[in-house]
Amino acid sequence: MSPEGDSGPARPGAVFEALADPTRREVVRRLAQQGPATATELAGELPVTRQAVAKHLATLAEAGLVTSDRQGRETRFSFTPQPLADAVTWMADVGSQWDDRLQALSRYLETGEPGPKRRKPGFDTDR
């Protein structure tokens, strides 16, 4: 599975890309800890303009990490943890695959004999 592969509405790659920026990480942290907020409220707590916060919120929304709720003239943004959990699951799956590969390499280095060949999904070698 690639980081760009689907795992629900948001792709892990989009989550990683969104969280690559320290300001966006801070916005996520604040929304997760303090609850819903407007772009203006967030800008008051950060060293960036309201317009910059709005752009960061749009990027986070594209990754599925925040949702917006219009209440009268205000739009309140909330943290959505599921895409982050999906990205963590993806990382754990990839980590597990690498653990398996490294164990096979270790066995090979210790014994000098390769382990059994595993077939790649989608490939039929018996034809």
What would you say this structure looks like, in words?
By secondary structure, this protein is mainly alpha-helical. The chain has a three-stranded antiparallel β-sheet. Helix 1 runs antiparallel to helix 4 and helix 2 packs across helix 4. It is built from five helices and three strands; from the N terminus they run ααβααββα. The radius of gyration is 21 Å and the shape is elongated.
* Main sheet: strand order: 1-3-2
Strand content: 5-15%
Helix content: 55-70%
Spans of 5+ residues with little confidence (pLDDT < 50)? 1-9
Radius of gyration: 21 Å
Overall form: elongated
- Helix count, DSSP H or I runs of 4 or more residues: 5
Give the CATH H-level superfamily of the domain at 12-83. Winged helix-like DNA-binding domain superfamily/Winged helix DNA-binding domain
Which class of the domain at 12-83 in CATH terms?
Answer: Mainly Alpha
**SSE arrangement, N to C:** HHEHHEEH
| Multimerization state | single chain
C-alpha termini separation: 26 Å
Question: What about the largest sheet?
Answer: 3 strands, antiparallel
Structural class: mainly alpha
Residue-averaged pLDDT: 86
Give the CATH architecture of the domain at 12-83. Orthogonal Bundle
DSSP, total strands: 3
Here the CATH topology of the domain at 12-83 equals: Arc Repressor Mutant, subunit A
